[in-house]
Design a protein that fits this description.
With about 120 residues, the protein is mainly β. Helices cover about 0% and strands about 55% of the residues. The strands form two sheets. Strands 2, 4, 5, 6, 9, 10 and 11 form a seven-stranded mixed beta sheet that branches. A four-stranded antiparallel beta sheet has the order 1-3-8-7, with no helix packed on it. A hairpin with a 6-residue loop joins strand 5 and strand 6.
Length: about 120
């Protein structure tokens, strides 16, 4: 299993970013995918989940209405569109997949929201 995140960077408050996670090594279209984030000194937090077909999504209350998770099964990629970014969204963002009892993670991509 390999997960490679990209798209992070520095953005001003109120700005937008789209993160991507390219997957390989497993049957991508069969698995639910998740985005997590971890801010300095804090525990890793589940941000958003998307079902294998993309028909069901769930979000943390802290990002509901601002973030959108989506996927392209043909491209084996999951996305996180982030709008109206706030300084408290600053974190390393990770995508993840659980296969049987094992969680696999990417290396993460840094998102910094600052003026």
């Amino acid at each position: 299993v390999q997960l490679v995140e990209s798209g992070g960077g520095l953005v001003q408050p109120g700005g937008s970013l789209t993160l991507s996670c390219a997957a390989s090594g497993f049957t991508f279209s069969s698995y639910r995918m998740r985005w997590y984030r971890q801010a300095p000194g804090k525990e890793r937090e589940l941000v958003a989940t998307i079902s294998s077909t993309g028909s069901i999504t769930n979000y943390a209350d802290s990002v509901k209405g601002r973030f959108t998770i989506s996927r392209d099964n043909a491209k084996k990629t999951v996305y996180l569109q982030m709008n109206s970014l706030k300084p408290e969204d600053t974190a390393v963002y990770y995508c993840s997949v659980q296969i049987t009892v094992y969680n696999s993670w990417g290396q993460g991509t840094q998102v910094t929201v600052s003026s």
